[in-house]
Design a protein that fits this description.
Layout (H helix, E strand, L loop, with lengths): L55 H4 L1 H9 L9 H9 L17 H42 L8 H20 L2 H17 L8 H24 L1 H14 L5 H30 L6 H29 L2 H17 L14 H4 L2 H13 L6 E5 L2 E4 L4 H4 L6 H24 L5
Antiparallel strand pairs: 1-2
Helix pairs in contact: 2-4, 5-9, 6-9, 7-10, 7-11, 7-13, 9-10, 10-11, 10-13, 10-15, 13-15
Length: about 425
Amino acid sequence: MAPQELHDDGKHKEAPTSTCTPPGSNSNPSGAVHPTTSSPPSDASGHRPAAANPFPLVLKFEEVVYKVKVGQHLIRNDSCSANHLARKSILPETNGDGVPGGGSEGEQKEVRAKLADAYARHIAPAVKLDICSSETASAGIRRGASARVEWTAGWCAQFSVLLRRGLKERRHESFNKLRIFQVLSVAFLAGLLWWRTPAAHLQDRTALIFFFSVFWGFFPLYNAVFVFPLERPMLLKERSSGMYRLSSYFAARTAADLPMELGLPTAFVLILYWMGGLDPRPASFLLSLLVVLYSVLVAQSLGLAIGAVLMDVKQGTTLASVVTMVFLIAGGYYVQHIPPFIGWLKWLNYSFYCYRLLLGIQFRDGGGVYDCGGGALCPVADFPAIKAVGLNNHWVDVCVMALLLVGYRVVAYLALDRLQPR
């Protein structure tokens, strides 16, 4: 019995002729059935029955079907599907009053079974197909995201833009008044303490040289620990939008740090070197300056590696403090006879190599002789603080520091590459 459309004013109106094609026809080869609810049948007089919702099982067909398979999704109201169901004898027959012909529990169970069977035969394949297609699309999106990104600008263009941005940002950070005051005040106070140290005071001169290696071996390390943890949100956001390569960012960051991080060490050496009364020959001064700047770059590389691996300022500063204390003790000045089982720490300590290079520059060719007491003259190379470190193998020290410089920066780059955009 085809459903009829009723209006709220109670007037009877003939139902429109159905233009739906049965599921078995050629227009719908899959035979998919879209069962929906329909208005209850009218009585002989053309009026709606007084009883409200006489057959709740059919009216709640959407909940019965879709709660079984796909949750709370509801099916659209489609009178055509209801006609199809009626033709396939899924819906129970009704009498002239619109009341179901049978309302026993057995008949209701039979209706439920027919509905479930109809869903399994007609609707479930389409639902499974939709789920599979959505999963395939998601996998394709993930594979596309992991594929190589087509950059809108070349590597050199990215490097140039990032370098200019880095110079503009870093100049205010590196040359702020507080940091300049900190470095210059330490240089002047240290110069006053080591004022014109005589060449005969080997202990004071070696202490001054060790101070060079320690101060500029640890000061850049602490500053570099903060770099990548503070820039992490910006880096993830810009990389997720495909703005630039990680290699161009890292290279620009390294290049921008050179003029910013090497200016203050140069001023420090200019002040303290001449106030301390070290070797006045220009070659010795220039070589000492280059060694200090070399040590600054290695220390900064270690700080960048610590910050990139941990990506936490508190954890990074804690680890940096432990590293600096160990390197300070094992630097060759405080402990001159390190036990063999822990002596390997000295060879990982870049401040140790910087200290030995500076000693070799100040005391080249053996360093002459000094008064070792009782009017006797002893070679400078036999002085305990110098003998424990040595005055040879300078090129080995340079190569080892180069390996540490490159190795620390490779670790930092790999740690940054691990931070994939979310």
